Amino acid sequence: QVQLVESGGGSVQAGGSLRLSCAASASRYSTNCMGWFRQAPGKEREGVAAIYTGGGSTYYADSVKGRFTISQDNAKNTVYLQMNSLKPEDTAMYYCAAAHYPSSELDEYAYNYWGQGTQVTVSS
């Protein structure tokens, strides 16, 4: 069982930055891909970014390209999401997830393990 714990959420004004962290248990090495997802009130959960833990390939939703960066520190079993130029529409609960062999990197149904989430609120 892979355990994921997110941190780094908070409140920020539009244009600001936040960095989310996802600390994974050592068993996450059984997975190949880590992703960040978000869910705003009344909306479906959407994929934001993903990274393959082996090769480092990254994937982004169009809505965050050029503003968000996913990265990893394998020595710390941690994945990060650097969020810059934040907009009010980025307000959501952000979740970290891990997948064994995702058929689609930004599809929530391709992921096997989930964290509890961290709230990000962006005010205008």
Radius of gyration: 13 Å
Quantity of strands, as a count: 11
Strand residue percentage: over 45%
Question: Major sheet: size, sense and barrel closure?
Answer: 7 strands, mixed
N- to C-terminal distance:
40 Å
The sequence of SSEs as H and E is EEEEEEEEEEE
Shape: globular
Structure annotation, total helices: 0
Helix/strand/pairing category: mainly beta
Can you lay out the helices and strands and say which pair or pack?
Blueprint (H helix, E strand, L loop, with lengths): L3 E4 L2 E4 L4 E7 L8 E7 L6 E7 L5 E3 L7 E6 L4 E6 L8 E8 L13 E2 L3 E6 L1
In brief:
By secondary structure, the chain is mainly beta. It has strands spanning 4-7, 10-13, 18-24, 33-39, 46-52, 58-60, 68-73, 78-83, 92-99, 113-114, 118-123.
Written overview of the protein:
The strands form 2 sheets. Strands 2, 4, 5, 6, 9, 10 and 11 form a 7-stranded mixed beta sheet that branches. Helices cover 0% and strands 48% of the residues. With 124 residues, the chain is mainly beta. The model has no long low-confidence stretch (mean pLDDT 94). Strand 4 and strand 5 form a beta hairpin. The radius of gyration is 13 Å and the shape is globular.
Features:
seven-stranded mixed beta sheet, 48% strand, four-stranded antiparallel beta sheet, single chain, globular, 11 strands, mainly beta, 124 residues
